[in-house]
Predict the structure of Sel1 repeat-containing protein.
Amino acid sequence: MKTSLRLALSIILAIPALAWSAGFDDAMLAFENHDFAKAKAMIEPAARSGDAASMTLMGRILDEGMAQPATAVNWYRQAAEKGFAEAQVQLAELYDAGEGVPQDIEIAVIWYEKAAAQGNEDALVALGQHYSVDLNHKKSAVTYYLRAAALGNDTAQYQLGLIYLGEKGIPRDDIKAWMYFSLSADHIPEAAQARDVLELNMSPESLQAARKALADWEASH
């Protein structure tokens, strides 16, 4: 009897969560289908109730769908302050571009770093891009790109390939460059081209070492 009661109670408690999930999915589908008015109407109640994912989607609807970044900022900020990584990235991007808010790279980096601390790929890549511009922070750029690359991010892998060609103040390493170009080659044509050009100038021994490095990387990830 007690087991049946607990089961019934767990089902009752799960109903609101299941309803929210279905409502969120429906709103996301409407957003993806560019029916922004419908998506907004569907997600706004949950956003106003304080759900971070819903607030973030509300921000995206206003920002990307309705071209209202200044209004979207408020929704992103509320969700970002709750620690929601996607909202932190969205807010950082607005500060980065100066859309809806005055451009402020320092604030953008702060929010990117908060999201990166949670392992958000977009934030890691954005920080890599920011730090790669400054010769004094090249090693920081590599660190962020390496973290994103380990998560399978093609952009980070391609950027690491470029970095290890010695183009950005880091000592040249053809084996690592070839490996990272190879990892991103399926999705970034420039990576495939760079790998093929690099390969023409590598010794058989270096190419063999690069292929082993690639196999080891894939086996460990």
